[in-house]
Specification:
It contains ten helices and 14 strands. By secondary structure, the chain is of the alpha+beta class. The chain folds into two domains: about 230 residues, 3-Layer(bab) Sandwich (Hsp33 domain); about 55 residues, Alpha-Beta Complex (CBS domain Like). Strands 1, 2, 8, 9, 10 and 11 form a six-stranded antiparallel β-sheet that branches. It has a six-stranded mixed β-sheet with strand order 7-6-3-4-5-12. The chain is elongated and about 70 Å long.
Length: about 300
């Protein structure tokens, strides 16, 4: 049985290549439990969660990485987010019937791929490219190869209650213009060809050490300690209250007057928050009470 809800990082000792391997179980099921996704939507969403977990582990950041695919086809929006704390969440929106076993264009239609890195108080970094290729993995590969000039290979699968993914990335080599650069390029091609022999069953089912031995038993690989992954939505009552404060007392109380209460449902986890007239009045009474006094003229 494969490692559950874990990220494994590894490097090739004699080649400028690093890799990540993820297996998602309870974290993936938590996303599935929030909405009744059809199979044709579940699979790309699970693949996106595996992809974003793999990619976030390659970026040094305190914040989050968000992968978003938008299209005009049956799947309109797909969002997956991974944080530096190794937490995940995701959601998809679709209209009508989504064709099963279709390529990317059949699922999304013409669209775009958006990669966003949120870095706390700093300005976020965002890259936007056309949504092209046969799969989400191929679209992300093209993004890194073309936009970031960082050769990257990805293999992902999401079936049933498990999602899994493998990433290989070629590291920059200083002064790699002569024989050393050619040797590094040969290693990159060789390792990619070996990884191409990996089946979906092996990717989902083999433990990390067995999988790496199956593919790269002739290479010296340094495997780091696994890191746990978990589903975390991030929504909370306090965040809903902050949103209502930003909305303003007049607007919030008008919603209460019209509907009897303010009800907000989180898109990601489907959890509902309800504030009745007493809650709303108390919320703005606290805001007023904590406002600093106006200076006398």
């Amino acid at each position: 049985m494969a490692d559950t809800d874990s990220l494994h990082r590894f490097v090739f000792e004699s080649a400028g290549i690093r890799g990540n391997l993820v297996h998602l179980d309870a974290s993936w099921r938590a996303v599935l439990d929030a909405h009744p996704y059809p199979r044709a939507v579940r699979e790309p969403l699970g693949e996106a969660l595996a992809l974003v977990a793999l990619l976030a582990a390659t970026v040094k950041l305190t914040g989050s990485l968000i992968l978003q695919a938008q299209g005009s086809g049956p799947i309109r929006t797909l969002v997956a987010q991974a944080t530096s704390a190794r937490t995940l969440r995701g959601i998809a929106r679709w209209e009508g019937e989504v064709p099963e076993d279709a390529l990317l264009q059949g699922q999304f239609g013409p669209g775009r791929l958006v990669m966003t890195i949120e870095r706390g108080s700093r300005e976020p970094y965002q890259g936007i490219v056309p949504l092209t290729g046969a799969s989400l993995a191929e679209a992300v590969e093209r993004y890194f190869n073309d936009s970031e000039q960082l050769p990257t290979r990805l293999w992902v699968s999401a079936r049933g209650q498990r999602a899994a993914g493998l990433l290989l990335q070629r590291l920059p080599v200083e002064g790699a213009t002569g024989p050393a650069g050619a040797e590094d390029s040969d290693d990159w091609r060789r390792v990619g060809l070996l990884a191409d022999t990996l089946s979906r069953d092996e990717l989902e089912g083999l433990p990390c050490e067995d999988l790496l031995h199956r593919l790269f038993h002739e290479d010296r690989i340094r495997l780091f300690e696994p890191e746990p992954l978990a589903f975390r939505c991030g929504c909370s009552r306090s965040r809903i209250e902050d949103m209502l404060r930003a909305l303003g007392e007049a607007e919030a109380m008008s919603i209460v007057a019209e509907q009897g209460a303010i009800e907000v449902t989180c898109e990601f986890c489907n959890r509902s928050y309800r504030l009745d007239a007493v809650d709303a009045s108390q919320l703005f009474a606290e805001t007023t009470r904590h406002e600093p006094p106006t200076a006398r003229q």
